[in-house]
Structure formats: C-alpha cells, structure tokens
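Problem: given the chain below (174 residues), write out its structure.
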Amino acid sequence: MFDKFTQWRKEVFRTKYKSIYPVKFGMTQEEIIAEFGQPTDVSTEKRPLIFKYADIEFHFDRRNDYRLYLVYSDEKIELSIMFETLLNKKLTNIIEQLENSNEIYMDLFNKGHSVIVEYKNSGGTVENAYNTIFCLYLNNREKKDELCEYREDLITDWLDCVCGWIGIPELRIF
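Solution.
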C-alpha cells in the first residue's frame, strides 16, 4: 500500500498540486486507509483527526463526520491545501478584478464558474461550495462601496449555479 502512497506523493509534487486524485476532499478516514493502508502516525484524539503518511498529513473535520478537509506538509516543499479556503481565495481574486463597467462581467463570471466546477470535480460538496460563496456574499455586503452591487450580482450568479437555480442547465454545477 505504501507504494501507492509514494507514487501518489511524487505525482502531487510533480504537478505542483494541480491534482490530488484519487484523493478527494470529503473522503472518510476509511476511504483514505483503503487507498493508502494504515497511516504511519495519527493524532492523539480517541478518533484521530490527523493521519500521517511519511511527510504528508490528512486532516479530518469532526463536525463533518470526520471527512477530509486539509492535506498538509511542511517538509521539502510546503504543501497546504485547505479546500474551501482555496475556493474562497480564488473567487476573491476574481471578484477583486471587477470594475464599474459590465464589459468584463461575463469573463469574470466564467472564470469563477470554472473555479467552482474544478472544486466540485476535486470532491467538493454542494453544501461547502454554497457556504463558502455565501460567506463572500456576506463579506461583500459589509463593504458598502460603489462596486458592492456588481460584486453582489456576480456572487449571487455563482450561488445560483451551485444551487441549480440558474435558467441555463449547462451552467448548473451540482
């Protein structure tokens, strides 16, 4: 089994974290063990929150049925992939490109849509996508500046794609 982990680890570092397949966020502890065998170390809680294989840690969220939410390593090349944080950061970067003009709106919408599709394809859940994007919406409402309404439109359009409320079926993500 560790051969499978070693191959996976090499591929993750080779591709600079573009894919962590077959690992997916939301996996259970049992699924990680089935994929890589027993971890070399675990955290000390009664039901461990962290599995360690060589220099990589898999972190599980007890509030979400002990499902995977973080892959981390500080050895050699720092690796820290926290799924919803990464989604938030990518969408925030897109939102910050918004201007008072609607000329780039569709381009930014499409970029964000692609980010959310990538999140889903990597194992992200509809609930976590919705909650992450809704937090962006709430943060935007606090700003109350001239771009607030444009950002709100962009964010709610992404939420519609996540929820399936958008009128164009091809844009529905989940």
